[in-house]
Structure formats: C-alpha cells, structure tokens
C-alpha cells in the first residue's frame, strides 16, 4: 500500500507504541487516530506522497510519549513537549534508514507543528498551505480520539493513583470542556464527532461513572460537567 520505507517506519512506530507504558497513549490510541485519519483523508483529493506523509505522521505522533510512565501528572507535562520529542524520534529513524525527501520531511514537520501550545502559530512559518491542511486532519483525528470511552476509562483509573493525579484529571476535564476539542478543522470530522459525543454523554451518565465523579469531586461538579458535555454535544453543527 505504501512505499517500503514508509511501511518499515510504520512497523517501527507500532513496535514502540506496543511497548508504551502510558496506557492513554499506546498502540490502541495510535491505531484509532490512524483509522480516523484514513476516514477523513478520503474526503480530500490528496496526492500519494501527501497520504503517505499524513499516515506516517499519524503513526509517529505520540511515539515521544513512550518515554514516560503512566502517571497522569507526567502525562499532563508531556502535553507541552511530546510533539517535539516524537518529531525528533521520527527524524532520527528516517536518517538511520536513509529516507529523505518530501514524505519524511512533511511527516516530521506535521508532528512538530501539531503541538497545541506553539503549533497553531508556527505552522504559518513552517508549513505550506497543503501541509497545514494535512496537519489539521491529524489534529482532528487526535481530538476525536480524546472522546474515546475506552481511553477515558483508562485515564479515570489513572486518576485514582494520587491526589495530584486526581487534580490533573479535574484540570484535564475542565480544559477539555472549554470547547476547543469540540471544534473541528474539517467538516467531515463532525460526523464522527457527533457519534463520539453521544457515546461520551452516555458514558458520563452511567450510574457507576456518576457516583465515581461525585465521590472524588462532589455532586455539584459532577452535575455541571455532565450538563456542559450535553451543551457541547447539542451545539455541534448538524451539517
Ligand atoms: Fe495522540
């Protein structure tokens, strides 16, 4: 399907992600992000090299996370540097196998510019218009995966470890519910987002999940959080 060198790099990324000690950024997460990327990129008239670069970037976008253990606090800190580390890891592997040209170059830059802190600005300096579009597809695919029920359950259990982890979970939820994760770059992504948001709402309203949230954060916070999710779900464009 892809060139031999791209297939080789994908296999390396899969091996690394399989060994990830961070259960919220493991092979399952990456596989889902790649699946969303493939669903979304079908709606664009992409060149072969662009498709290869985007899929390669999707497989490598969280390889930097394999350097950390599963503490939620570390995961929170990693949010600011993981894209840089992942981009450097991919760059090193491409040199090792003598893979040069537009595909590895685009893939590395897409990952580096995906960072939520500086990426949205630096992309205008570093990326061409077409590559910015590829970056936006990867960003949507990764944000869609944030609403995965499986992943939320993993993160919820990680929050049980320490009081700092519980605080990080609360901050993460509050940050996620500001609404930016419910705004997609690509229209096609809203079809997947609506399904994901429905599942998310059903999950948060389950009796055991409600009582878990009340137990750790209080009834008021749990109710407000569920209400906020419902408001965000209802605000999604119908298409
Ligand atoms: Fe990710």
Structure in a nutshell:
By secondary structure, the chain is mainly α.
List keywords for this structure.
239 residues, 2 domains, single chain, binds fe (ii) ion, mainly alpha, globular, Hypothetical protein af1432, 13 helices
- Second CATH tier, the architecture of the largest domain: Orthogonal Bundle
Give the bound compounds. fe (ii) ion
Structural class: mainly alpha
Mean model confidence by pLDDT: 91
CATH T-level topology of the largest domain: Hypothetical protein af1432
Number of strands: 0
Question: For the record, what CATH class of the largest domain applies?
Answer: Mainly Alpha
What summary fits the major beta sheet?
Answer: none
């Amino acid at each position: 399907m892809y060139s031999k060198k791209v297939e080789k790099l994908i296999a390396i990324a899969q091996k690394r992600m399989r060994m990830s000690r961070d259960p919220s950024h493991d092979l399952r997460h990456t596989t889902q992000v790649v699946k969303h990327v493939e669903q979304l990129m079908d709606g664009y008239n992409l060149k072969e090299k662009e498709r290869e670069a985007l899929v390669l970037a999707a497989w490598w976008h969280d390889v930097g996370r394999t350097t950390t253990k599963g503490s939620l606090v570390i995961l929170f800190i990693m949010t600011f540097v993981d894209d840089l580390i992942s981009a450097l890891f991919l760059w090193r592997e491409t040199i090792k196998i003598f893979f040069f040209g537009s595909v590895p170059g685009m893939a590395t830059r897409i990952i580096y510019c995906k960072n939520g802190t500086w990426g949205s600005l630096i992309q205008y300096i570093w990326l061409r218009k077409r590559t910015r579009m590829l970056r936006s597809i990867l960003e949507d695919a990764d944000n869609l995966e944030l609403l995965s029920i499986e992943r939320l359950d993993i993160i919820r259990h990680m929050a049980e470890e320490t009081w700092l982890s519980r605080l990080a979970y609360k901050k993460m939820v509050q940050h996620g519910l500001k609404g930016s994760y419910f705004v997609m770059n690509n229209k096609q992504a809203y079809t997947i987002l609506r399904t994901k948001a429905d599942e998310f709402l059903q999950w948060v309203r389950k009796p055991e999940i409600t009582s878990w949230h009340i137990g750790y954060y209080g009834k008021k916070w749990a109710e407000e959080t569920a209400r906020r999710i419902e408001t965000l779900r209802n605000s999604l464009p119908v298409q």
